[in-house]
Give the backbone structure.
Amino acid sequence: MYYFFYGLLYLVSLLPMRILYMVADGIYGLVYYVFGYRKKVVMANLQRAFPEKTNAERTRIAKKFYRNLIDSFIEVIKLLSASRRFLKKRFTMDTSVLHELYKTGASCQVHLGHTFNWEWGQLVLTDLTDYKIMVVYQPITNKFFEKLFYRLRTRSGNVFLPATNMREAIQPHLNSQYLLALVADQAPSNPATAWWLDFFGHPTPFVNGPEKGARNCGLPVVFAYIEKPRRGYYHATLTLGCREASCLSEGELTHNYVRFLEDVIRRNPDMWLWSHRRWKHTWKNDYAAKWISKNPPTE
């Protein structure tokens, strides 16, 4: 059954992008206007993040977000047949900061958020750096999509490490000079152990794993974000977050990353994944030791 559906999707992927985007437009209409997929979550998140905007302004952001979401889905299907030349033409990035770090002999981490289209980006990066690329990911519950996405994500030789078993999965690669890519804006499963700070004016927990790993290994960290100049074309910007995470105080790397992330989202709000329940955890005074912004809140 897997190969039957894979074959169907492969045939779809052979269509020109202009046709695929026409399909995306049709799916957008169904998802946004008919099914209203996670619409309440998206609008609630936008209300929290941008209370100063009018409802009409937030609705425009939401519509652009849904178009980007559907485009990203269609662009993943295109990966079944897309060549490396096709991807390099449509996804560009300046990797000079990685070249400089690689020459030092150090491994590094790259922290980015849920911005579109990270699936294309990690594949393009393979040909632009000498680092061995490893990516931490959350396995998909649906077995068909897990197998499909894993096949597409690893087609260029990048190593994908399941977040559910990362410590063991990374062990065979620790002696290589690697680049570890982490989507660092994940909502933590346990808010009591997370770092807490102000994010869009609200107390928000962030996973501490990315910072902990970088500090323990004394790694340099690069912050990355993705922009979309026009439909079907992307550009990633990579900037040095720190040269050695172990030289920073606890929580400082996370604080700097979150400030970077918020600035990125404010400039291109439709590019972030608003369908996640980012503010599902409520602040408690018990978390005071984990607060890393100014002026800790009270219950």
